[in-house]
Amino acid sequence: MDKDKVQPTDENLDKQVKKGVTKLVLTVFAMFAFGFALVPLYDVFCDITGLNGKTADTAATYNADGIDTSRTIKVQFISRTAQGAAWQFKPEMNSIEVHPGEMKFVKFYAKNETGLHGVAQAVPSVSPGLAANYFQKIECFCFNQQPLQASEGAWLPLQFYVDPDLPEEFTEITLSYTLYDITASTPSSQESD
After folding, report:
1. Which helix (H) or strand (E) holds 172?
2. What local confidence, expressed as pLDDT, does residue 189 receive?
3. How far apart are CA 84 and CA 180, in angstroms?
4. What residues pair up with 98 in beta bridges, in sequence order?
5. pLDDT of residue 122
6. What is the value of pTM for the model shown?
7. How confident is the model at residue 60 (pLDDT cuts 50, 70, 90)?
8. Which among 62, 169, 75 is positioned nearest to 124, based on CA atoms?
9. Phi and psi dihedrals of 143, rounded to 5?
């Protein structure tokens, strides 16, 4: 037998195992903490950079002063339903021309195509993302959940204006809504289970 090789003792082996387990536990904890913090960090990043096209979740106030009639902005409307949502969802028009500062009113149609009472929630996004800070919603169906009975449809209001401070390079804005079926996560559906 080679006398130069040192055989690990039970004590050394125990120390190595404990050290390895400790590193693994700390790594798992760090990964969990990073994953948990990712959403708030992403929201802060989007707020700072203006990326992702997130609009405000609250109603803006409208001031009729300052309509810029020298400029026209084309606002396009796109709607879609999330995968697995048995709802119909569409804008009443595909686009509209607005002057910055001018208030406009449009509607979106939503219909619950299931055989049961349902609740939906629309999530907006504006493109280009930097224009989201200038797209102001005065009234929006996206602020609230939309409960509809089986096969019931409704026209949902959107009242908005484009802030006159919108930089000159923006001549077109796309407002996109995704409609999610949130019936399973609403309190009324949980009570009936």
Report:
1. strand 172-181
2. 47
3. 9
4. 73
5. 94
6. 0.67
7. low
8. 75
9. -75, -20
172 and 77 Cβ atoms separated by less than 8 Å: no
Position with higher pLDDT, 61 vs 106: 106
Cβ 113 vs Cβ 152: under 8 Å: no
- Taking Cα atoms as reference points, which of 59, 180, 179, 57 lies closest to residue 109? 179
**Burial letters for 108-120: b for 16+ Cβ neighbours within 10 Å, e otherwise?**
bebbbbbeebbbb
Give 56's DSSP letter.
Answer: P
Residue 17 has pLDDT above 50, yes or no: yes
Contacts of 43 (CB under 8 A, 6+ apart): 54
Q: How confident is the model at residue 126 (pLDDT cuts 50, 70, 90)?
A: very high
Q: Is the pLDDT of residue 3 over 60?
A: no
Residue labelled with tokens 């009242």: 159
List for the chain the helix, strand, coil content (%; round to 5).
30, 35, 35
Q: How far apart are CA 149 and CA 129, in angstroms?
A: 35
* Sign of the CA dihedral running 124, 140, 64, 78: positive
Instruction: Give the CB-side neighbour count of residue 117, counting CA atoms within 13 A.
Output: 6
Strand order in the sheet with 153-162: 87-91, 104-112, 153-162, 135-140
